[in-house]
Amino acid sequence: MTPPPAFRTSSSPRARVIALLGAALLIAFALEPPVRASSATASGPVPSPRPSAPADALARPSAAAAPLIVLSTSDVKGKSSPCGCHTPKGGLARRAALADSVRATNPNLIVVDTGGYFPEEADYEAAAVFMLESMMSLGTDAAGVGESDLRYGLGFLRAGLARTKLPVTCANLLDATTGRPVFPPFLLKTVGRAKVGFFALLAPSADLGPSRDSLRVADPLESAYRTVAALRERGATVVVLLSDLGKIDSEEVANSIPGITLVIAGHKIPLFPEGRRVGGAVVVYGGEQSQYAGLATIPLDAAGRATAVGAETVMLGPERREEPAMLSRVRTFETAFNEELKQRERQEALRAVAGEGGDDDEPRDRYLGAEVCGRCHGAELAQWKTTAHARAWATLVEQHAEARTDCVRCHVLGFRQPGGFQTDDDAPRLANVQCESCHGMGTQHDATRPAAKLTEATCRRCHDDTSSPAFTFDVYQPHILHRAPANLPPLPPKPKMAMH
User: Which residues does residue 285 pair with via DSSP β-bridges, in sequence order?
Assistant: First the structure.
């Protein structure tokens, strides 16, 4: 990222930014106490401060006395229900329950999202609108704009925001003709004794979707410099950046621009259990798909300024309660949306059949299904039926996700490939992770040669770092072998993180 032109005469980009901004904000910072990291080095992890007494023994503090608590998510990608093969995590109902539990002990909860809350699929507009509505139900105070949020066009996003009143900000997404920000460059809100300023940044490399010709993305460093100065001039005592820049560029802004209290990093961000001090800010890294949420604690002085910042990432796993009203809303929507997707798939299949033509007698490679394989490999079929792979489809049906393409592809044979699973009408034969998922298409099977050897690359097509973060090929692969080694140790327990 390039610093503003006025900064380019000094020897260091960071020094130039700090020098000019320091002069502009001298009065604002003169009386502000230093922000300290709780039990951490200047660049190390920054855990959230912990109360000395159990939570249920503490009286709910007044808004004036309580610290700020910032609950954050990033890159949700339209995930409304728990997701993940090893431990299903996330979901709107768990996020709502977490927010409620924090509000029960602290009135100064702030809910934010960096952006990237729309689905990645091209035809999931209904899910995008539902996500906007749900974010408002969660009490979202500020949200940024991510690449996927522009997938259906700027007009679609604006219409959804106008209807839901979701407070969105982005300091560097500009109208290409006027050069003006498309959304408010910052938001201000009084929370307790603090005046909190929010702003968001989008990566210059972002795909701006159908509206790309009418939009442009300004330099993040320049935009951050101007926006932080504007927020401090308007009395902001705490500044929160919702960054869709990725890890490296989010850290560069935090390190180069003083005056930022907290950075929520988004866009292909790793998962770190604790926040990290970068420059004068603490950065939260919460992964994606809302499988985890960031919780930052910001104690305040009498003037509402941060005296310390601590942050951690908590897993939204099965142990966490699901808020009943949100759970009901999610199930109602997903049931209806699932049926809509099934209807679309059936219509697409009918159109495909009508347009195929050709010689009906011409052989075509296709998937056969496990029962056909079992005619010769009965023992292997019986062993397969004892594994979790044999009920992969059932796990989707139970979650009303059997039409969600991002989920279905790893729970069936040959998803949307010629001769593979096309619609749920194919489920009786091609649902689940079957023989051909590992050994190849049945019509290409050569009985005179050994079966194709299972490789880690095959498993990693679905068991990636997001869906199966604990997956290790050498540990898990023996448990699906048709002839497992003797004295095979059990699989390791599902990983846990501290729950709140």
Answer: 265
Task: Tell me the average pLDDT of the chain.
Answer: 83
Query: Do 154 and 182 contact (CB within 8 A), yes or no?
Result: yes
Interval 114-173: pLDDT, tens? 999 999 888 899 999 999 999 999 999 999 999 999 999 999 999 999 999 999 999 999
- Establish if 12 belongs to a structural domain: yes
DSSP conformation letters of 313-337: EEE--TTS---HHHHHHHHHHHHHH
Q: How far apart are the first and last CA of the chain?
A: 38
User: Mean of the pLDDT values across residues 388-399?
Assistant: 84
| Residue found under tokens 């003797």 | 486
Claim to verify: residue 41 and residue 145 sit in the same structural domain: yes
**8 Å CB contact between 291 and 497:** no
Q: How far apart are CA 65 and CA 68, in angstroms?
A: 10
Tens digit of each residue's pLDDT (9 = 90 or more) over 254-298: 999 999 999 999 999 888 999 999 999 999 999 888 899 999 999
Phi then psi dihedrals of residue 330, to 5 deg:
-65, -45
User: pLDDT tens digits, residue range 45-79?
Assistant: 766 654 333 344 345 677 777 999 999 999 999 99
Higher pLDDT, 477 or 222: 222
19: amino acid identity, one letter: A
Structural contact between residues 345 and 400, judged by C-beta atoms closer than 8 angstroms: no
What kind and span of H or E run contains 449?
A: none
**CATH code, domain with 255:** 3.60.21.10
Query: In the chain, what's the furthest Cα-to-Cα distance?
Result: 84
Residues 133 and 117: their CA atoms lie apart, in Å, by 11
| C-alpha to C-alpha distance for 188 and 456, rounded to whole angstroms | 49
C-beta neighbour count of 234 within 10 angstroms: 11
Phi, psi of 96 (to 5 degrees): -65, -40
The span from the CA of 440 to the CA of 438, in Å, is: 6
273 and 419 fall within a common domain: no
Q: 209 and 274 share a domain?
A: yes
Q: What is the CA radius of gyration of the chain?
A: 26
